[in-house]
Design goal:
The structure holds 2 protein chains of 2 kinds. Chain A is an all-beta fold. Chain A has no helices and 30 strands. Classes of the chains: A mainly beta, B alpha+beta. At the A-B interface, β6 of A face α1 of B.
Chain lengths: 371, 111
């Protein structure tokens, strides 16, 4: 019988939530690395027992942990993320130049075919890759040297590369997103990059439709349609049908189009999930109601999913890496909150229930569907 | 020289060191030579106390010994004889302000 493993990164450690395919009863393991910030934990599709975790603190910097047994035991691997050459300067919050400085790893994306290959998105924004299971990391510096780097600026969370999507049909094509620079695409495995932000409009930059400078919060793709991407921007939910050559807005009837998380149903490429957040200065749901919105039409027409979610006095946030789906039938959807709850739905969002309710603030949620 | 080092809890957990660490340090005993010996014994600590490349101390890491603060001293300054002889430990301390990240000059810490 299939089972699922939900990998949760929090402000004070990692947790592994396990259940059989019914997804009714859950075993909670953790905290792993108690007291550390776990920005991301993700498993290798090629070897589900191989997990990678980004562990950091303000005191002692960045570590990468690797597990070969599904998260029961861990070992620290390489943590040297050194930019290629002199990294130069990006924009600071006030528009002045500010030197590139490595701060932390936001996203770890294991290869679909090789458990020793992982891409890492870091703050200050850059893309790294390991080919030896995390022992050594090298920068794919073509991205940072795209030429627009001096115009990139940090969002409220820092200047982070937070999304990495590798095209399953062509691993040479990779999409990444940076706050606040925008989305970029390579078709040669990371040697050269193109900004793919046409159609985005952002009021926080002098030229609202500039080539770069957009605060993209998250991008999601269904693996069967690598040309179609869905984006939760700082404001606006966007869609592209041509691999990012152009985007159009699909916010439709959402109560607010600000938010962080976005994901796509495992079996229905036109079914998309977002969690609307009231605004960039409030960072909590509208009306104290935690609602996931689902579109079954690829955007524009959205329905509120509320059953099992708190519908009064709820003022948590759902961060950009904190939503994921499993591949079971029916598709499971999971998300974590800054209030420490992890909610799950075993029926594609129709109803929800908390898996755990009192974790530290949740930074990331990933799911493994196990045979 | 046998030098005693007390690590903060996070780094004891990371290294697996149980209690104080006793290190053999060749030649002059300074913050640099003690950290060299510490990282050689526990390579998982590389990058946690000082930068991999520049060897600059991480901002929220402090070095105390014999009721003095050596954090701001050049790393080759000799530590007190009491540390070099093992009578007193070198204390590696996480600064009291370091528990929560400060991501930028605005003090914004949310993602």
């Amino acid at each position: 019988m299939s089972s699922v493993r939900v990998l949760v990164g929090t402000h004070k450690g990692a947790f592994v939530l396990s259940s059989d395919g019914k997804r009714e009863k859950w075993d909670v393991s953790g905290p792993h690395f108690g007291g550390w910030e776990l920005y991301h934990v993700k498993g290798s599709p090629a070897d589900p027992n191989r997990l990678y975790a980004s562990q950091s603190t303000g005191w002692f910097g960045q570590l990468i942990q690797r597990s070969n047994d599904g998260g029961q035991t861990w070992e620290p691997v390489g943590n040297q993320f050194t930019y290629d050459g002199v990294p130069g300067a990006h924009q600071w919050y006030d528009g002045t130049p500010h030197p590139w400085e490595f701060k932390r790893v936001w996203h770890l994306e294991p290869s679909a075919t090789d458990p020793d290959v992982v891409w890492a998105g870091v703050e200050d924004a850059a893309l790294f890759r390991t080919d030896d299971g995390g022992k050594t990391w090298g920068e794919l510096s073509g991205l940072r040297k795209h030429g627009s780097g001096p115009q990139w600026a940090p969002g409220a969370g820092g200047m982070c590369l937070h999304t990495i999507i590798v095209d399953p049909s062509d691993p040479q094509r990779i999409y990444i997103a940076i706050s606040a620079a925008g989305a970029f695409r390579t078709v040669d495995g990371g040697a050269t990059w193109q900004a793919i932000n046409k159609g985005l409009r952002s009021a926080h930059i002098p030229d609202p439709d500039a080539e770069v400078g957009h605060c993209v919060h998250r991008i999601a793709m269904h693996p069967s349609r690598p040309q179609v991407l869905f984006m939760q921007k700082h404001w606006d939910v966007m869609r592209t049908d041509n691999a990012g050559d152009s985007w159009h807005e699909v916010s439709g009837n959402l109560p607010t189009d600000f938010g962080f998380a976005i994901d796509v149903h495992a079996h229905e490429p036109e079914t998309v999930y977002v969690v609307p957040i009231k605004s960039d200065h409030l960072h909590y749901p509208p009306d104290g109601q935690l609602r996931v919105y689902r579109s079954k039409s690829g955007g524009n027409e959205w329905e509120a999913l509320t059953e099992g979610l708190p519908q009064k006095d709820c003022y948590v946030n759902v961060l950009r890496n904190a939503m994921a789906v499993d591949k079971l039938d029916a598709c499971g959807v999971y998300f974590g909150t800054t209030g420490g709850q992890v909610y799950g739905s075993s029926n594609a969002g129709d109803t929800w229930a908390p898996i755990v309710e009192n974790l530290p603030s949740v930074l990331s949620v990933e799911v493994q569907t196990l045979a | 020289m046998s030098v005693r080092v007390v690590l903060p809890a996070h780094l004891r957990n990371l290294s697996g060191a149980d209690g104080e660490v006793v290190l053999e340090v060749e030649g002059a005993v300074s913050v640099r030579t003690v950290l060299d010996a510490l990282e050689a014994r526990y390579p998982m600590l590389l990058g946690t106390l000082r930068d991999h490349v520049t060897k600059q101390r991480r901002p929220f890491v402090r070095f105390f010994a014999c009721e003095e603060d050596f954090s701001m001293e050049p790393p080759d300054v000799a530590l007190p004889e009491a540390v070099a002889s093992g009578k007193e430990p070198l204390l590696v301390v996480g600064a009291i302000a370091g528990g929560r990240r400060r991501s930028n000059s605005l003090g914004v810490s949310s993602q």
